[in-house]
Write a structure and sequence with these properties.
By secondary structure, the chain is an alpha/beta fold. It has 14 helices and eleven strands. The strands form three sheets. A five-stranded parallel sheet has the order 9-8-7-10-11. Strands 2-1-5-6 form a four-stranded parallel sheet, sandwiched between helices. Strand 7, helix 8 and strand 8 form a beta-alpha-beta unit. Helix 1 packs across helix 14, helix 7 crosses helix 8 and helix 7 packs across helix 14. The chain is globular.
Length: 327
């Protein structure tokens, strides 16, 4: 029984049973090579349109643990500049249309993994997820998101895994997503995705806190409790997830860069000895203080380590579908 609803992994909505997928990931953590022949003779193409460290490395390791061969291609710096708009007159800076490139990727690879990034210029374009959807439309093979303009599903699956692995009590943990200051406008994808997965998982008491005007798209925030007072939000928190995002409504602006939103040890006094999470990379002493990151509260390294098992669980589901289809 597949844990994925379709042959692609783009969001929480592609998963039939989050707990079962988390259990599968933790099983791989305990025994990384138990399915080391599952992907024998299969190839995954990892296409990067923007920089990546953890996502890139963990996906390659996960693929190799399953016997797959990963091939990494930095589209932005090594490939032709791709055109994504249908019916475009390509007299500008783009050299190749995705309609021509994607089917070729479909011939070279069994699975395609793609990392795109929002322009942060036009909300409609970014939220249409044109880039990843065009690869899905034209490649003809399963597509795995390594982060898109609006979502980062492997990161969020990792976050669920990390909470599941570290929370020992019989009640629902209180999980707080807190906005943090940053030096430049960042996309909403990690915050959107974390919110989407917390809501879909349904096993936490979920709160989002941010300054006024930093509301996320309601499609992702869902029924989370929204508070503009950070101290009030942090009260009795078991987990604090720290992330910056730029404004959604008046798109991609920085209205407020109040340094008092940076998480400090002092603020954690209001919590239930909370564990602190962040997707990384983190700007120290801007988003999070050294004293928090270097304290026992921080589980960011454990969280990043779990990226491998999240990717391995999803890849094994995609491979399972491929192997079934071929028999």
């Amino acid at each position: 029984m597949s844990l994925l609803k379709s042959k692609n992994f783009i969001s929480a909505h592609d998963v039939t049973n989050i707990n079962a997928l988390v259990a599968k990931a933790l099983d791989y953590k305990a025994n990384p090579f138990k399915d080391k022949t599952l992907g024998t003779g299969k190839r995954i193409g990892c296409l990067f349109l923007n920089p990546s460290m953890r996502t890139r490395l963990s996906t390659q390791i996960a693929a190799q643990n399953l016997g797959m061969e990963p091939i990494v291609f930095n589209v932005g710096s090594e490939g032709w500049k791709l055109e994504f708009e249908d019916e475009a007159i390509m007299s500008g800076s783009t050299s190749e249309h995705v309609k021509d490139a994607a089917p070729i990727m479909g011939k070279y690879f069994d699975i395609l993994a793609i990392r795109t990034f929002p322009s942060l210029a036009n909300k409609e374009d970014d939220y249409s997820e044109l880039y990843v959807n065009q690869f899905i439309k034209y490649s003809g093979i399963p597509v795995l998101s390594l982060e898109t303009a609006t979502l980062h599903p492997l990161q969020s699956l990792t976050d669920v895994i990390t909470i599941k692995e570290t929370f020992r009590e019989k009640r629902k943990p209180k999980v707080v997503l807190t906005w943090a200051p940053h030096v430049k406008p960042l996309p909403q994808c990690v915050a959107n995705s974390f919110s989407q997965w917390m809501n879909a998982w349904g096993e936490v008491d979920f709160v989002i806190t941010h300054p006024e005007d930093y509301e996320l798209d309601p499609a992702f925030a869902g029924n989370a409790t929204i508070l503009h007072n950070q101290d009030e939000a942090l009260k009795d928190a078991d987990y604090v997830y720290v992330k910056n995002w730029s404004t959604y409504t008046d798109y991609a602006k920085i209205y407020n860069n109040d340094p008092s939103w940076m998480l400090t040890l002092d603020k954690l006094k209001h919590t239930n000895d909370a564990r602190v999470m962040h997707c990384l990379p983190v700007r120290r002493n801007v988003e999070l203080s050294d004293e928090v990151l270097d304290s026992p509260h921080s589980i960011v390294t454990q969280e990043a380590g779990n990226r491998v098992w999240a990717a391995q669980a999803v890849l094994s589901e995609l491979l399972g579908q491929l192997n079934t289809a071929h028999h």
